[in-house]
Amino acid sequence: MKTTWSVLAVSLGLISQSAVAKLGESNGFSGEIALNAAYASKTSNLTNTDDEFRKYTGGQQEDSGALVLPLGSLQYTFGSQSTHQLFLGTSRADIAVGTVALEAGYKHLFSDRTKVSISFLPTILEGKVWQDPYTMDARQTTKENGNAYRLQIDNIAGSLFSLDLAYGKRELDEERSGTGVPILSPQEAQLLNRNADILYGKFKMMLPVNRQVLLYPALIYTQQDADGNAMKHNTYGAELSSFMSFGNHKLALTLGYLKRDYDASNPLFDQTRKDDEWKAFLAYEYPGIFYSNDVSLVAFAGAANSDSNIDFYDEKDWITAVGLSWKF
């Protein structure tokens, strides 16, 4: 459940992400291991690929269940002033196309507090999808693959502004969208091809309210250059994150809105697709349990709702979880 992993990472990232540019307390290895018990639900006609959903009956297809979600990261900090870092693990920030995968890269802290990170995400778009989501026959699954490359520039020239850029490529082993629909010609089915190059950009700034509250407004843009013109789209969005600390309690709330405009008319539904998506995440951390400052109780909840002018593409998902995090 890729969206579930995205909710999880954003929530944890909001709790623990430092507002000050800093690579590590000292040189050497550091990291974190988190284990969470969660319950999640996703309603989607495209990505719920369990056997019970092979036959599309025209209704919304909802999949829910309990999950055990492990996360981890490992960093090695080095240099005379701890200004270099190699890192490996699951990302804590909003990444490429809103999902979480293994990330490996290098980070450098400059003297003016600018922090530059370059990373490679080899599994960010991996998953299982339908070969042809639109056929009325029993649907077959295929593997979705993709790599992504990411550049982050935080505290640009010592300022409160940051930039996050990424490029990703989505490739399906067997892309057959529309080929099982008799009323579509091969040329019309090609308009539904999902293989794509994806560009992502996020510009944000930090707004300190007081010593306990920080705000991070952000603007987001994504371009999906799909092989099928009806699947090409531009996404425009905005996000507001609030970080709050009250004694030993840490809270984070993120609200986001995305608008997707597609390039060409969908040959199946005879209209050009438009989506409006709302997201909300609430996270809580209480460090210092079990008499250790390195162990924290974490809990979070998140929900997302994508409303399309074509009902077939409507999606909803939510997650709630509680777990422990250990830093070393």
TrEMBL record:
UniProtKB keywords: Signal
Top-rank lineage group of the source organism: Bacteria
Signal peptide residues on this chain, from the entry's feature table: 1-21
InterPro entries named among the record's database cross-references: DUF2860
Pfam assignment, any one: DUF2860
Identification of the protein by name: DUF2860 domain-containing protein
Organism: Vibrio thalassae
